[in-house]
Amino acid sequence: MKIAITGGTGFIGTRLVNHLIEQGHEAIILTRNPQQQPKKENVTYVKWLQEDATPEKELEGIQAVYHLAGESIGNKRWTANQKEKILKSRIDSTRALMSILSKLNKKPNTLISASAIGFYGNSESAIFTEKDEPVDESFLTTVVGEWEKEVAKAQELGIRTVYARLGIVLHPKEGALKQMLLPYKLGIGGPLGSGKQWFSWVHIQDVISLFYFVLLKAEIDGPVNFTSPNPTQMNEFGRTIGSVINRPHWIPIPGLVMKLLLGEMSTLVIDGQKVLPNQALLHEYQFQYPHLKQALTDLLQE
C-alpha cells in the first residue's frame, strides 16, 4: 500500500513509518525540509507547507493518509502565544492537507488523523467512550473539537475518516512518563495533585499497532480511543512506577504547586478523564499491554 504521512518524523510518526515499512508498505512523508531527511528504503520525502510546494503532484495513487502533524502540547508553558501555536498548527496543517486531497484525481480510501482524549474534558467521576460529548470548554477540549471539525471535511471527499483520540502515550524517553520518572529516580516521587485524577494511558507499541489496525479495518470510522482498557488513578500510577523501578512513592506534590510550576499546562497532570477504548475492543483489537504494571515493566526494564 502507498501511504502518505504528515508528522512522520516525530515521536509517534517515526515509529509508525518503521512499522509500515516492516509490513511491506511504501511511505511518503510530507515535510517542510525533505532534503534534510535521512534516506530510507521505501520512504519518500515530499515538500509541503511551503509556498513553492506542490505535493499533490507526487501523491497521486496513495491509498491512505496518516495525519500526525501539530505542535506538541507538553513541551512549553501555555502562554497565549503558545496556545495560539498549538491550535493554529493543527488547523493550518489540516486545511493544507484537505487542499491537497481535493486536488487528487483519485482520492485515498482512508484518512487516519491523530486527535486526543482531551476532547472529552476533565472529570473524576465520568467514564468516557467514543459516544460521549465534551463535559467542559477547556483549552484542550476546544483545540481537539476545532481540529476534528477540519479533519471531518475529508468525509465530503468520500474518504473514510478516523479520529485517533490518543491517551497518555507511555515511553520512558518521551512525553509524560519521562517527566514523571525523574523524581522517582531521585527518591522523591509521589502523587501529583489529589492523586484521584484518572490517567488514561497507553503503551507506545499499542499506539503503533492500533494505528495499523484501524487502517486495515475498513468498517471502522469516526472516533477511536487509543487508550488501555484499564485506566488508573494518578496515585496508583505513581505507586506502580515506584514498584517497578524499586523507588519510594511517598512525597505528594499539591496541585497548587504544579499550577505555579506549569501554569495552565498543569491540567495535563492534575486533571484527567477515565476513557475506555470501546471501538478497539468492539472490533476485537488485542492489546499487547492492557495492564499498567506489565506496560511499565516492559518500558522501564534496564
Summarize the structure.
This protein has a seven-stranded parallel sheet with strand order 3-2-1-4-5-7-11, sandwiched between helices. With 302 residues, the protein is α/β, with parallel strands linked by helices. It contains ten helices and 13 strands.
Domain tally = 1
Number of strands: 13
Overall geometry comes to globular
Question: What would CATH call the class?
Answer: Alpha Beta
- What would CATH call the homologous superfamily? NAD(P)-binding Rossmann-like Domain
Determine the mean pLDDT.
95
Main sheet makeup: 7 strands, parallel
Number of separate helices: 10
Which residue ranges are poorly predicted, with pLDDT under 50 across at least 5 consecutive positions?
Answer: none
Widest beta sheet: strand line-up: 3-2-1-4-5-7-11
SSE order, one letter for each helix or strand: EHEEEHEEHEEHEEHEEHHHEHH
Name given to the CATH architecture: 3-Layer(aba) Sandwich
Rg over C-alpha atoms, rounded to the nearest angstrom: 19 Å
Structure characterization notes:
This protein has 302 residues and is an alpha/beta fold. The chain has a single domain (2-300), classed as 3-Layer(aba) Sandwich (Rossmann fold). The protein is 37% helix and 18% strand. The chain contains ten helices and 13 strands. The strands form four sheets. The chain has a seven-stranded parallel beta sheet, sandwiched between helices. Strands 6-13 form a two-stranded parallel ribbon. Helix 1 (11-22) crosses helix 5 and helix 2 (80-103) runs parallel beside helix 3. The longest helix is centred in the first third of the chain and has 24 residues, at 80-103. The protein is globular and about 60 Å long. The two termini are 37 Å apart. The mean pLDDT is 95.
